[in-house]
Amino acid sequence: xxxxxxxxxxxxxxxxxxxxxxxxxxxxxxxxxxxxxxxxxxxxxxxxxxxxxxxxxxxxxxxxxxxxxxxxxxxxxxxxxxxxxxxxxxxxxxxxxxxxxxxxxxxxxxxxxxxxxxxxxxxxxxxxxxxxxxxxxxxxxxxxxxxxxxxxxxxxxxxxxxxxxxxxxxxxxxxxxxxxxxxxxxxxxxxxxxxxxxxxxxxxxxxxxxxxxxxxxxxxxxxxxxxxxxxxxxxxxxxxxxxxxxxxxxxxxxxxxxxxxxxxxxxxxxxxxxxxxxxxxxxxxxxxxxxxxxxxxxxxxxxxxxxxxxxxxxxxxxxxxxxxxxxxxxxxxxxxxxxxxxxxxxxxxxxxxxxxxxxxxxxxxxxxxxxxxxxxxxxxxxxxxxxxxxxxxxxxxxxxxxxxxxxxxxxxxxxxxxxxxxxxxxxxxxxxxxxxxxxxxxxxxxxxxxxxxxxxxxxxxxxxxxxxxxxxxxxxxxxxxxxxxxxxxxxxxxxxxxxxxxxxxxxxxxxxxxxxxxxxxxxxxxxxxxxxxxxxxxxxxxxxxxxxxxxxxxxx
Amino acid sequence: xxxxxxxxxxxxxxxxxxxxxxxxxxxxxxxxxxxxxxxxxxxxxxxxxxxxxxxxxxxxxxxxxxxxxxxxxxxxxxxxxxxxxxxxxxxxxxxxxxxxxxxxxxxxxxxxxxxxxxxxxxxxxxxxxxxxxxxxxxxxxxxxxxxxxxxxxxxxxxxxxxxxxxxxxxxxxxxxxxxxxxxxxxxxxxxxxxxxxxxxxxxxxxxxxxxxxxxxxxxxxxxxxxxxxxxxxxxxxxxxxxxxxxxxxxxxxxxxxxxxxxxxxxxxxxxxxxxxxxxxxxxxxxxxxxxxxxxxxxxxxxxxxxxxxxxxxxxxxxxxxxxxxxxxxxxxxxxxxxxxxxxxxxxxxxxxxxxxxxxxxxxxxxxxxxxxxxxxxxxxxxxxxxxxxxxxxxxxxxxxxxxxxxxxxxxxxxxxxxxxxxxxxxxxxxxxxxxxxxxxxxxxxxxxxxxxxxxxxxxxxxxxxxxxxxxxxxxxxxxxxxxxxxxxxxxxxxxxxxxxxxxxxxxxxxxxxxxxxxxxxxxxxxxxxxxxxxxxxxxxxxxxxxxxxxxxxxxx
Lengths: 556, 556
Hints:
The structure is a homodimer. By secondary structure, chain A is an alpha+beta fold. The first copy, chain A, has 4 domains: about 55-160, Uridine Diphospho-n-acetylenolpyruvylglucosamine Reductase, domain 2; about 165-285, 2-Layer Sandwich (Uridine Diphospho-n-acetylenolpyruvylglucosamine Reductase, domain 3); about 285-395, Vanillyl-alcohol Oxidase, Chain A, domain 3, CATH 3.40.462.40; about 420-515, 2-Layer Sandwich (GMP Synthetase, Chain A, domain 3), CATH 3.30.300.330. Chain A is about 35% helix and about 20% strand. Chain A has helices spanning about 25-35, 60-70, 80-85, 90-100, 115-130, 185-195, 210-215, 225, 230-235, 260-265, 300-310, 325-330, 345-355, 375-390, 400-405, 410-420, 435-455, 485-505, 525-540, and strands at about 75, 110, 130-135, 155-160, 165-170, 175-180, 195-200, 235-240, 245-250, 275-280, 280-285, 285-295, 315-320, 365-370, 395, 425-435, 460-470, 470-480. In chain A, helix 2 (about 60-70) packs antiparallel against helix 5 (about 115-130), helix 11 crosses helix 14 and helix 17 packs antiparallel against helix 18 (about 485-505). The first copy, chain A, is globular, with a radius of gyration of 23 Å. Chains A and B meet through strand 8, strand 9, helix 10, strand 11 and helix 14 of A and strand 8, strand 9, helix 10, strand 11 and helix 14 of B.
């Protein structure tokens, strides 16, 4: 078996790592208030793979033989664990289905190509033997982009790019690195870092997502304000398609008709298997500084981010949480560390703010990142600091930001912790023009709470602004509720409130999580009937017989 | 007749304005040396429209009637002048054909829609009556995107968007303006400027190109380093297509599959008629400063631009001319004004540089633009100044830059001046990674000179870097030669040397001039066979019967 690591089959992250509340004294009371769950009670007993009753592979001996010919016997897997790991991504729906042993269709084989030639052999085989191929990176997708369709009668092969994980070449003069698509975030940054470079792409899924996956879903990262999202970073591409290999040359910009580069971005495997991406890389900056601020309200925080986005400063991170997410952050603080209401500094500051008339229940935590030379960081801090002050914000220094930076990739573990205790949680994000952002936010909160009330559940909704652009920003919502015996039906109601409100309020379906099957029913509302026609046209041109991840993005 | 202004039918710009050499004492000697033409001799006598023998419109009475129904009788034109103006863009090939009265196919009617409803009526009519529609903005295109194909047997209607020229709405909170596609550059900036905004898009064609044209060709402007090219600026769009209207909602970013926005960008009319664009706008900055610098060589200038592009500074303009373009700039200086070898300051500086060992024939002029608050401009000037110094450059202050800024949109007039005197000239531009830029530059100069030698003509080739990006830059070449009796055949040889070398040397066909018919033969070399397949797939999906500007971008 190839040495490709996977996440837990039943949840996020690596085996043996999970969320613990015991060192976070404020957490049980917070969860009880937020979603009505007593986390001090023992959790559900863990599932075992044997309980799943994984259906047998539907694959002929001939196809087995030809898969072996294509990638070698050691790089094909048919065992239950591997097949289950490759059945779903990590959306709430995916995890609920796994926990319910709901596996209507599982990939029949998993292949681990080691080269573009291997991928070519697989794509050719798919055409000849009428297989379905589903490209697979880190498996962290939460938009339903990875599962075989329940009604799929053809043999389904999951193409795991995990062996193709090398930085092949760095053009140091141009700041361009040619990289295999299957590399995971930490491995990529390690390989680049050894040569003194960074790509600067740090999505929340960073530890368990791949370069190819980022391209296929139009990913954004924590520091995209500076480095650009993956659409900016990915300059060149090689994509193995049924009738040939698409080559996007790594030019800095081009005016050669409708952009094929921008067709591959967000294509979720439907336009071929991405084998290689040439990405912009940067020298590791002299200084990387993250500072925390507190705003008297979310509206004030948003207004400050807006003003920063049109100022002379270009911080690497602009982030502000609403009051609910701020309360959650405070509730997950460890007993003895960092900024908190209970720490001496925190208590003094909070008293001071109360005297100034703040309602501390409305306080909103913000992080701003600065990068560059010392003078540049000082220059930008000055501009940003003045804007934050003008909007009533106060500085909290480095402490909370350092803590945030350390635990930012751990948040998804909390979802599994909640699922073990009857709590359902997931995230949905959008982007909208600045003028529509706060109205969208209030409408979402109101509509989701209405659903909670309708369902009769205790639920929580919180939000942060995660990226700023000139004309608007990304709002990232997290929701959680105590579910009943039909959690998927409840989730559907909540999700409907989120996505429907995004569209109605002038936002987009997704800023960086893609469409998959989870968002495809609203796609037409977002990109218009003609937009769907155009997307389907490209798909049908490249893959007329729908061998490649059918049913994703569009339902056809 | 609608009050839509057009350029001269036979050349660039407005009637009554042309290039004059009489106040530029160094120009005749320069032209004599560069292209072997004596400009002090009287020019060819001007052409008249009567000499052209414009073929009669091929249009039925029924279609005439329906065009009138669609846009109103006063907004349809059939006269020779209007039809000739809408036959070509302003490429060298276009101008040579006009001067040779080579008009194999002329639009049969010109329509001036006043609203999206008018455009819808026209697109519907095109489907019903099997017409060809060619959207027309300012007519400044130099890639052969505007002419009807010679073999076109269907009735051809040029759709001039000139009446749709209004800024409809400014979302001041978001910095977004909803604008009709037919607005010309100066009119757009005037309308925005009255409200305190700028779009910051200043292509060389600014005075005679439109918003819709910029989108349809993926235009870049002088200040794109700061404001972004049109692909960044254009957030929302409305595009009238045969089976419906594509609506791209103006969200700051989105992850909703292959980008339909990026399909419209560069679509040259083939994916419908762009009626409206929602663009990013900016408050007019406190300071707009352009400074001139001089480098000891082009290589040094390129290296400095590269270092600036990865520095903490983000100037609004980065431009450096090679020694040949620098010589041309000096040769077009007016007798008494500004920086020059003959001015006292210039002479002193040049003597000083010679003492420092400069070969003044190799000196390269550079302009860097700064925008923002006073402290910000000072901060960026400091960073850039240190980099320029490290690469051997010296500052020349504001003088040359002010002059450049004043005359930057006048350069195309020189081409007509030369054409009147037996000189053929045009421009070609590319973009390539920094590592490939100087080798590409030297290969282009060498290969074009080889062609000049083969042809036995005196010719000139010069270049500037016009935009910097993180991983590379745009190189903009201008060529001119004394042509013989078959100037188009000679031009084809020169153009082949340019475009072929771009591709071979790792550059793209065009950074911001589009494909049209002029570059389509190299498209596959640039975007790969699969890339052409994908582009054709989108076109065929939207316009299966090829009613919309057929033969552009791809030859089908």
